[in-house]
Design brief:
Alpha/beta knot, alpha/beta, 42% helix, 2 domains, seven-stranded parallel sheet, single chain, elongated
Length: 233
Amino acid sequence: MKKTRLEKIKKVLSQRQPTLTVLLEEVHKPHNLSAILRSCDAVGVLEAHAVAPRGGLPTFNATSGSAEKWVPLNVHRSALETISSFQGQGYQVLATHLSERSTDYRTPDYTLPTVILLGAEKWGVSSAAAEAADANILIPMLGMVQSLNVSVAAATILFEAQRQRLEKGMYAEPQIVGNALEHLIFEWLYPDLAAIYRERGEGYPGLDEEGMLVKASDLELLGDLAMSDTDSD
């Protein structure tokens, strides 16, 4: 069972795209946040980012299908500072925003390191964040209503990014390798155990080829975790 899970995790991680992400500016509805993370997982986004609304981030909705376990959500205080930080790392920031410089969402090159900036359900991306972004993008609307639900907009844009990256072969060549890959494999196989080692400031233990813990002390710790889970039930 563990080996089968390990093989699936390795396959999924081999297609993760660390240079594609979303930044959510004060998205506050649980079902929208959950649905966006599910779309992120589906197209291979490694991790997502959010600027929390005043009341804090909402609790996750069952709609996500536990996607939050596979797409960590990093929380930031300032949209402008986060945008600037990404730009300093060589990312293009594309804000979903209607302005004079808006272009069709299919126009940008999503094979470049990209952040898709999406705003709150009612107000959208703030004017300051939209101005700070490298480009503004829009999804053409032909009906009476001129806006999409934020989670639908996110999915639409993310799958365009996936299409472009598939055409370029970016999913065929693993982008996470070496120690970074080994760390993620351990965290995905043993999330509770990984949290303990991070708290201790210790490195993760080694695994055998079937994904099993090698050292007896690590196995004992895993057993203790299982017992505590049983007791809590």
